[in-house]
Write a structure and sequence with these properties.
Layout: E1 4-7, E2 19-22, E3 27-32, E4 35-41, E5 56-58, E6 72-77, E7 80-87, E8 90-97, E9 102-108, E10 111-118, E11 129-131, E12 133-134, H1 139-143, E13 158-161
Parallel strand pairs: 5-10
Antiparallel strand pairs: 1-2, 1-7, 3-4, 6-9, 7-8, 8-13, 9-10, 9-12, 10-11
Length: 180
């Protein structure tokens, strides 16, 4: 789920540049209750096990896992994300987008991760999980340990097939999100 995503613009005014192929380990902008915007590494380890390198966690169980007990809530801006599905034995990438602008996330001193939920609607034909999305109306609630927006809503998520050049993390330009 969501092993790559896209951020265009400088969402929090901290000098971030367009990135059309964000991979785990990349420094990405996040916002927490304590910070109006900072760069964090997209890779999370609990403070007691510094080599875990998690990039996501399940919303349904995050409050039960010791790894996330001391994590701060964060929001991660995005323009879209990539998911792959198997078509006749080949991995085919799809670009997903919606009007929502933020992933739900968790962070600590080591980095951050994306909170995931069960895929809803037509999105579930590509992958069984999707990023947890946070609407502008729910930003404060999420950051203050509230709930995700309605997890049964598909949030108008759309997707289309893109070129497999996105498979190579070296590639990073606007052509990656062009429909094929």
């Amino acid at each position: 789920m969501c092993g790559r995503f896209v951020i265009t613009g400088d969402p929090f005014g901290i000098g971030f540049k367009d990135n059309f192929n964000i991979t785990p380990g990349t420094k990405i902008p996040i916002k927490t209750l304590d910070s109006d915007g900072e760069l964090k590494t997209w890779s999370y380890s609990p403070l007691w096990k510094t080599d875990m390198n998690l990039i996501n966690c399940r919303y349904e169980t995050m409050n039960l896992k010791p790894s996330f007990k001391k994590a701060k809530r964060c929001i991660i801006p995005f323009s879209g994300w990539y998911e792959w599905t198997n078509v006749e034995g080949k991995k085919v990438p799809y670009y997903h987008y919606t009007d929502i602008s933020y992933f739900a996330g968790l962070s600590n001193d080591s980095g951050c991760l994306i909170v995931t939920q069960k895929s809803i609607g037509k999105n579930s034909v590509i992958h069984e999980r999707q990023p947890g999305l946070v609407s502008n109306n729910n930003l404060s609630d999420w950051l203050m340990h509230g709930f995700l927006d309605d997890t049964s809503s598909d949030f108008g998520i759309n997707f289309y097939k893109v070129s497999n050049i996105v498979n190579n993390p070296i590639n990073n330009n606007k052509t990656l999100i062009e429909e094929q």
